[in-house]
Amino acid sequence: MADLRIDLAGIKSPNPFWLASAPPTNTGYQVQRAFEAGWGGAVWKTLGDPIINTSSRFAAVHFNGQRVAGFNNIELITDRPLEVNLREIYETKKRFPDHAVVASLMVEPKQEKWHEIVKRVEAVGVDGLELNFGCPHGMAERGMGAASGQQPDLVEAQTYWVKEVAATPVIVKLTPNITDITVVARHAVKGGADAISLINTINSLAGVDIHSWNTIPNVGGQGAHGGYCGPAVKPIALSMVAECARDRGVGVPISGIGGISTWQDVVEFMLMGSTGIQVCTAVMHHGFRIVEEMLDGLNNYLDDKGLASVTELTGKSVPKYSNWGDLDLNYKVVARINEENCINCNKCHIACEDASHQCIDMLTNADGKAFLHVREEDCVGCNLCSIVCPADGAIDMVALDSGVAPMTWNQRQKVISGLNSSYSEAEVV
Amino acid sequence: MSAYAEFDKERQEIDALLRQGYVITGIREDLNGAAVQFTSSGPGVNRVELLLLTADSRKYVTTLIFAGANPAKPLETHM
């Protein structure tokens, strides 16, 4: 059995599975039950001046029978007094000394406010701090959360203020509601961040009731934008984690968040640079015990791969993530249809005809049996047919040897530039 | 005409010029495609321009140069 322990910027945990700061980490009762179930760490629901929530605060997007493909919330940070939370954090840490308890914090962007809360929270024995610069709703209207996180200079300054007094590692949680998340990540690091976590939720409106014309959710007929999370956001989160992981100006450990629901998701986030991960929506959907399957799956995977420690996964796929301009234009794949597995639903033909390059023909053989055939020379290898195909093993995307050296777009443009400049202005067309 | 056939037609035009001793001396790309200038030092017509429309041809012609074959020579490819 592999070693699942992680050390994220000095915060030690028996495994990489942490609960994200959210409703499942609202109380000591919940966090302790989570630890009993197998979670290695928890980021306590964000502490700050206690708020007042609305009733009717969650909504979900279900897609084609898949419940909770996406999840939307307009809940704010903790509505409980700081002392109550601190007492429960102390009790939790006392009962689970080897588990990671991280306090998520959000206060107004004032130095004295940050100093006060950091000192009070650290006094009860938390293992680290996570600065919430990400929540997009409610608190942002008051100048906190994402409103702070969208201003790199404010992220840097607040991180710096925290680091002035913090004795434990500081994680800065980033908002995805920004053009380039690496800019904010770099400023967090300039402010002294020991690690970053991402992503927080994405601005969203879950839907509109087409009968009542109310928003979903609505509060007495009125709605407001919320934060979107769950499986639907995973690709966005993974991309942002990857961008931060490969940015040399960031260079601090990453706690990956965003739609993680399975052990396979965990592996993907770690391969793309995360030291550990955080989960919320999957727990809200299925409960704390989903961690049991995650632990088993991760253990088996590591054993199968012959890896002694989960830490060996971190960042292994980062070198494989690049810019579009550095991809090989001469690499070519084509679709191959395996007739023995094809069910002749023709979805590949329709997709190729209507949305791609019209290279899958519907033919009939000598026995009058219909079959599908790919004209490989016209296939651009877009993958669409294999994506829409409902039959396992019916379509393979096969790499061809093009017989020529790899050439990227960037290399191509240099070739053209060099060619044109090597002749006189008059010679160049 | 299939996309491959369009490409193959343009590639044959490129290869034919290269076999006649022309060298690719300039490429200008714009909204219409790639205008490729071929120059020959031999007698007769010494400058020809081909307007390449297909993506595969525009890739092919630069692959020739990138592969270090300028004076470019036709490549044995499976493109």
From TrEMBL, chain A:
* Superkingdom of the source species: Bacteria
Q: Which GO terms describe its cellular component?
A: cytoplasm
Please tell me whether the keyword Oxidoreductase is annotated for this protein. Answer: yes
EC number, as in UniProt: 1.3.1.1, 1.3.98.1
Record-level Gene Ontology MF annotations = dihydroorotate dehydrogenase (fumarate) activity; dihydropyrimidine dehydrogenase (NAD+) activity; iron-sulfur cluster binding; metal ion binding
Q: Tell me which residues make up the 4Fe-4S ferredoxin-type domain.
A: 333-365, 370-400
Listed under catalytic activity are: (S)-dihydroorotate + fumarate = orotate + succinate; 5,6-dihydrothymine + NAD(+) = thymine + NADH + H(+); 5,6-dihydrouracil + NAD(+) = uracil + NADH + H(+)
Report whether Protein biosynthesis shows up as a keyword of the record: no
List the keywords (alphabetical).
Flavoprotein, FMN, Iron, Iron-sulfur, Metal-binding, Oxidoreductase
What metabolic or biological pathway is this protein involved in?
Pyrimidine metabolism; UMP biosynthesis via de novo pathway
- Which coenzyme or cofactor does it need? FMN
The chain's coiled-coil residues are: none
- Record's family? Belongs to the dihydroorotate dehydrogenase family. Type 1 subfamily. Belongs to the dihydropyrimidine dehydrogenase family.
How is this protein organized at the quaternary level?
Heterotetramer of 2 PreA and 2 PreT subunits. Homodimer.
Cited function = Involved in pyrimidine base degradation. Catalyzes physiologically the reduction of uracil to 5,6-dihydrouracil (DHU) by using NADH as a specific cosubstrate. It also catalyzes the reverse reaction and the reduction of thymine to 5,6-dihydrothymine (DHT).
- Name of the molecule in the record: Dihydrothymine dehydrogenase
UniProtKB/TrEMBL annotation, chain B:
Q: What is this protein called?
A: Uncharacterized protein
